[in-house]
Amino acid sequence: MGEFVPAIFSERDKGELYERMIVEGCRLVQERGIRRLRVEDVTRAVGIAKGTFYSFFPSKERFVYAMMTEGRQDLMDLLGKLHDEHGALGRSEMRTWLQAMWRSERNVYRIVTLEDYEWLMAHLEPEASFDPAKDMQVMEAIAELLDGVCEGCDWRVFANLQKALALALLGRTNLHSDALERTVDAIIEAMLDEVFGRGETVH
Asked: Is residue 202 part of a domain?
């Protein structure tokens, strides 16, 4: 596919090109990891010039960060859709959302290694990293959509369980691979227990 640099991008063109870069970026990171990924790999896969890439992203690191934040936004959109369909969300709907998050093949924590993730965090500006204050803002937004949150719910514990699952997936080569998905589900149930209290288990 030849390179192209449209003289003027429409908003639709920008959105479609951005999505193509994100999709190809996820595929390439799965194949090569973050550190071995080159901007040229992305531009060749999408069929654009390097200058076009840099008009969207100032660096490879910010591109990978965009893949991570795009995934988060997709999940928040899904949460909103579930809320529109069901009203206030209970344990079952929350489980659906968490499983969509942590079972997705586009979840960056399933794609990269711990070493790659640590390298990325070391090369990002402080404002582009994930910090507890941002986590709590997301938790507060989620809480407003839920029904039946237990009185003793501690969103810091919920956030810590999310981070524990991320770390488990980043270090997945050290885990029993044939029990990984059941481990994911067990941690999801622990999150649900924290939010809604102990309830029915998933089989």
From this structure: no
